[in-house]
């Protein structure tokens, strides 16, 4: 490949929360193809609709109508591209072990079509070494040629924050890297050409991989500390939010808040680092403990709600409970690794009369993934029907309602505020 921006033809493999915004952005400057195995998803994108709501209809239709962006499920359609970006999921299985199948299949796909001089950049979150130790050998085996002799590789970790309308893909600073110094410089130049805040060129692919995984692991550990403090202070009948407000008056105190930890990043990425650390004979005690604490917070919310009901003399057996929110964060449709199902599972040991309401979530997706039926409209029809209400997700839709109106007994019913978003006089308990 002649390293020249003028002949660049980009293909983004994986059109989810990360891939589609990236493909749309690159299409503003380069001919761009999007590739995904989900035909329904591809058809929707080509019609100008993104059901993840990460790319607005206007921006998406403009990209499609200008023919700068085209999405496909056909492998032959992307053969002429020369700069491939892999943005497939890197999930974990039910035993919290990294599931590399999407990454492996994407690498096999690229190996079938890669040409001399082509570049492959991985964006999927991985442990340090995965690009060169797992992905590249798969491409080499499929195409029959060697890295840096026939094709080149790089890593530029994704930094998409679902639902965040401030830190959109064009505004974030991207870390870049490459398999040779020359390729690293070129990859950096490609990304820098479409970003408002530039790039940081890491000295190696492993450094770039490590930088991504510790970004989310750090947040997981920090939140776990807040959650542990919340449990300690709740047991002492001290409000954690009062404690944080007081402590924040010191100039170098870092203020964070407790809560549920879900999503595809913070709740998943640490397991990749834990597994890799174990292969080197290092036991990651702090990271593992943080994961254990945060994984248990759904059960903690449910048990604290039950305790609050008991204190008010509410019979928990067959009680009617409303849970507001099922997505993993506010004002976002993403339900990946949400901890609300864990709350439901604990409560279901006592009652089956649980109603979950979320206007942002896709009911079919929630049912398919978690087996939970949710309501998405006519919230006010639920007024005056419940023994307890859990505000689990602080959607803006809930900011102007009186939560206690949903209680059958506004005085003696229970409101549990997971997010610390409600006025204190409106709640009976909170993390």
SSE inventory with pairings:
Blueprint: E1 10-13, H1 19-26, E2 32-35, H2 39-46, H3 57-65, E3 69-72, E4 83-86, H4 101-113, E5 119-122, H5 130-143, E6 152-155, E7 174-176, H6 181-192, E8 199-201, H7 205-235, H8 240-247, H9 269-279, H10 285-295, H11 297-311, E9 321-324, H12 340-347, E10 354-357, H13 363-370, E11 374-375, E12 388-391, E13 414-417, E14 429-430
Parallel strand pairs: 1-2, 1-4, 2-3, 4-5, 5-6, 7-8, 9-10, 9-12, 10-11, 12-13, 13-14
CATH fold title of the largest domain: Rossmann fold
The poorly predicted ranges are: none
Cα separation of the termini: 56 Å
Structural class: alpha/beta
Return the string of H and E elements: EHEHHEEHEHEEHEHHHHHEHEHEEEE
| Strand content range | 5-15%
Q: What is the CATH homologous superfamily assignment of the largest domain?
A: NAD(P)-binding Rossmann-like Domain
Largest sheet at a glance?
Answer: 6 strands, parallel
In the CATH hierarchy, what is the class of the largest domain?
Alpha Beta
**What is the strand arrangement across the widest sheet?**
3-2-1-4-5-6
Envelope shape: globular
Q: How confident overall, as mean pLDDT?
A: 95
Rg, please?
Answer: 24 Å
Would you identify the CATH architecture of the largest domain?
3-Layer(aba) Sandwich
């Amino acid at each position: 490949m002649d390293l020249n921006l003028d002949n660049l033809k980009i293909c983004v493999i994986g059109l989810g929360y990360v891939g589609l915004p990236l493909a749309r952005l690159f299409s503003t400057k380069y001919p761009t193809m999007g590739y995904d195995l989900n035909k329904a998803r591809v058809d929707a994108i080509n019609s100008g609709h993104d059901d993840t709501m990460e790319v607005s209809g206007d921006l998406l239709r403009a990209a499609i109508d200008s023919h700068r962006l085209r999405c496909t499920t056909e492998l032959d359609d992307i053969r002429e591209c020369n700069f491939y970006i892999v943005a497939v999921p890197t999930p974990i299985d039910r035993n919290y072990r990294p599931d590399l199948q999407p990454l492996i299949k994407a690498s096999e796909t690229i190996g079938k079509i890669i040409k001399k001089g082509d570049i492959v950049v991985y964006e999927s979150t991985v442990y340090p070494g995965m690009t060169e130790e797992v992905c590249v050998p798969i491409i080499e085996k499929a195409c029959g040629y060697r890295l840096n002799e026939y094709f080149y590789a790089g890593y530029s970790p994704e930094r998409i924050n679902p639902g965040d309308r401030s830190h959109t893909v064009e505004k974030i600073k991207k870390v870049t890297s490459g398999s040779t110094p020359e390729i690293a410089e070129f990859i950096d130049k490609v990304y820098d050409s479409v970003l408002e805040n530039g790039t940081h060129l890491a000295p190696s692919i492993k450094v770039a991989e490590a930088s991504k995984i510790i970004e989310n692991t750090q947040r997981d550990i920090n939140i776990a500390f807040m959650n542990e403090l919340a449990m300690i202070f709740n047991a002492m009948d001290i409000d954690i939010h009062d404690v944080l407000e007081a402590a924040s008056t010191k100039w170098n105190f870092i203020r964070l808040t407790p809560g549920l930890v879900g999503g595809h990043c913070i709740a998943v990425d640490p397991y990749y680092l834990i597994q890799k650390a174990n292969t080197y004979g290092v036991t990651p005690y702090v990271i593992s403990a943080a994961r254990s604490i945060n994984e248990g917070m759904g059960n903690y919310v449910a048990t604290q709600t039950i305790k609050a009901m008991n204190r008010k003399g509410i019979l928990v057996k067959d009680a009617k409970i409303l849970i507001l929110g099922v997505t993993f964060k506010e004002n976002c449709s993403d339900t990946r690794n949400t901890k609300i199902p864990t709350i439901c599972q604990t409560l279901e040991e006592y009652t089956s009369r649980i109603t979950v309401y979320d206007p942002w979530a896709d009911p079919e997706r929630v049912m398919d993934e978690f087996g939970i039926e949710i309501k998405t409209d006519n919230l006010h029809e639920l007024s005056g029907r419940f023994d307890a209400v859990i505000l689990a997700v602080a959607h803006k839709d809930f900011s102007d309602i009186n939560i206690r109106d949903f209680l059958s007994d506004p005085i003696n019913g229970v409101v549990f505020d997971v997010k610390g978003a409600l006025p204190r006089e409106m709640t009976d308990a909170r993390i």
